[in-house]
Write a structure and sequence with these properties.
The chain is 0% helix and 53% strand. With 116 residues, it is an all-beta fold. The strands form two sheets. Strands 2, 4, 5, 6, 9, 10 and 11 form a seven-stranded mixed sheet that branches.
Length: 116
């Protein structure tokens, strides 16, 4: 069973920065892509950023230029560096993994609150 353990959420002021981490228990050669999603109260879960096993990245328009997704393959850890955060970035952020076998796994979520 794959486990995704997230950390790094919290409260940040507008314009501030946070870095989320997600450690995956799956063997790295079975991961096709990993990504970050978020869900705000009353809204659907939405893709924030994605990185493939080849390192190709994809970002939602609302975070382009502010957020950076990266992977440390040696540590099997996914990161999301968030800068210049806005109140509308407030949400629960979820780590996601899609394996080469076609399976999808989710982390438990970590709360990010952007407020003064």
């Amino acid at each position: 069973q794959v486990q995704l353990v997230e950390s790094g959420g919290g409260l940040v002021q507008p314009g501030g920065s946070l870095r989320l981490s997600c450690r995956a228990s799956a063997r790295k050669n079975s991961i096709a892509s990993m990504g970050w999603y978020r869900q705000a109260p009353g809204k659907e879960r939405e893709l924030v950023a994605l990185i493939t096993d080849r390192g190709t990245t994809n970002y939602a328009d609302f975070v382009k230029g502010r957020f950076t997704i990266s992977r440390d393959n040696a540590e099997n850890t996914l990161y999301l560096q968030m800068r210049n955060q806005k109140p509308e970035d407030t949400a629960v952020y979820y780590c996601h993994e899609h394996t080469s076998f076609g399976h999808d796994y989710w982390g438990q979520g970590t709360q990010v609150t952007v407020s003064s």
